[in-house]
Design brief:
single chain, alpha/beta, six-stranded parallel beta sheet, globular
Length: 215
């Protein structure tokens, strides 16, 4: 039997912690190990609980901040980090992304996105919501705007999936749009990534932009 994904929630706001606990507890593949109200409590709990994923809002002055992410990376490099934050400041978002968080969502994201992001973080994969993905693209595209990339042939179905990923749809939405199973969508994505020799959704969106797939 597959072990559930162990999660530690770190958020100063009581209602947010309760809401996340209630949402995540409804999924048997996820196990909530505990809740931390501030950085001190979080780092006291980590050595004993050893969660796979720390779910954190860093934008809470006096409780958690960008430095919390950096400290997590230094002291507990094997812990995967998932951020759910209302932060709108690009500079701090980019700083946190550069620390190497696995998943980054805003507090407006839906349940399916949150669950998918937890699963991605547990596997040490990247998962960004549309807003954060736009920020990543903005920076990545500006850095690479003069680079050219020879297009790699994809099947019409694969092109269709790339287009929908680039528009910000998650696997479940793509499956519904194309009348496929979610498993089939994941298989197509895996094959696309292999063909293009890329490893993340931001790179896939960049490919779509550079090759006119969104046009």
């Amino acid at each position: 039997m597959k072990h559930p994904i162990s999660v530690l929630i770190a958020d100063e706001q009581y209602l947010v912690r309760v809401g996340l606990r209630h949402l995540l507890s409804g999924h048997p593949e996820i196990q909530i190990l505990g809740e931390a109200r501030d950085e001190e409590e979080l780092f006291d709990m980590l050595p004993e609980l050893k969660p796979q994923v720390v779910l954190l809002d860093y934008k809470q002055p006096g409780y958690f901040d960008e430095g919390t992410i950096g400290r997590l990376r230094r002291e507990f490099p094997m812990v995967n980090i998932m951020v759910i934050s209302a932060d709108n400041e690009k500079s701090s978002i980019f700083q946190v992304l550069e620390f190497g968080v696995n998943s980054f969502l805003t507090k407006t994201c839906e349940e399916d996105e949150i669950i998918d992001a937890v699963a991605a973080a547990a596997k040490n994969e990247k998962f960004f919501c549309t807003k954060i993905l736009d920020y990543v693209l903005e920076r990545t595209f500006s850095r690479n705007e003069e680079e050219s990339c020879a297009p790699t042939p994809l099947s019409p179905r694969e092109v269709e999936i790339v287009r929908l990923v680039a528009k910000g749809l998650i696997a479940k939405e793509i499956a519904s749009e194309l009348h496929l199973s979610t498993h089939t969508v994941y298989t197509h994505r895996k094959n696309i990534m292999r063909k293009l020799k890329i490893n993340s959704s931001p790179e896939l969106v960049l490919y779509a932009l550079q090759n006119g797939i969104l046009a």
